[in-house]
Amino acid sequence: MISGAGSRQTTATGSAVSFGIGPLSRAAALIHTLVTVEALLLVAASPGLVGLLLLGPDPAGLPLAAVCLLPLGPATAAALYALHHRDHDLADLHPARAYWRGWRLNALPSLRLWTPLLAWLTVIAFTLTHFSATGLPGWWAVLLTAIGAGSLLWGAHALVLTALFAFRARDTARLAGYFLFRHGRATLAAASLLVLTVTGTTLLTEALPALLAAPLLLSLLHSSRPVIAETQEEFTV
User: Fold this and answer.
1) What is the pLDDT of residues 19-33, one digit of tens each?
2) What is the residue-wise DSSP string for the chain?
3) pLDDT tens digit sequence for 142-171
4) DSSP string spanning 48-107?
């Protein structure tokens, strides 16, 4: 990909072409992977994202917004798969191939968890946006917000597990709940990414999560290494 000293590839004429393995070459390979995965994630989620743009900010449209977000689950799981399996051989980078393989493997498994999570979050969001009509005391709003945040963190663990392992949906759900408290640092790191995303979206642009999805997911994978390692050691054959 970038000329330099390192691995070698033979051309059709028999001459050898070398590829760099230094920091610049690795940085370029990582950027190539991130940009490719980002573009493919947006393509895979585009039907729902277009629907969200058409809906507008009316709280009454929350159920339809949840439907529009359904493609985002498989798209995110595929991105996590591609980033985790990114090729470290700089002469043989195929992030697009890894992404679509991840999508084929994880589309249905991720939807089995993503759909009920979206439904649950929609109920919470609808309640909060119409809270004055519920007649509930104010502390209920705080409790619901905390439950919603906890559900998102559970969903982060669940998507990582779904993307990288072939468990049944109920087993993935249990493991995600287990790791929510078992690996507090991983959960705290996921919470930090959530706060960063919400803050950036509020202060800058609503498009920020879509534009930075790949780097955010790579950070999530990095912070989830203890979860991934324990799952490999304790829960796989």
Assistant:
1) 556 778 788 888 989
2) ---SSS-EEE-TTS-EEE---SHHHHHHHHHHHHHHHHHHHHHHHHHHHHHHHHH-S-GGGHHHHHHHTTTHHHHHHHHHHHHHT----TTS--HHHHHHHHHHHHHHHHHHHHHHHHHHHHHHHHHHHTGGGTT--THHHHHHHHHHHHHHHHHHHHHHHHHH----HHHHHHHHHHHHHHTHHHHHHHHHHHHHHHHHHHHT-TTHHHHTHHHHHHHHHHHTHHHHHHHHHHS--
3) 999 999 999 999 999 999 999 999 999 999
4) HHHHHHHH-S-GGGHHHHHHHTTTHHHHHHHHHHHHHT----TTS--HHHHHHHHHHHHH
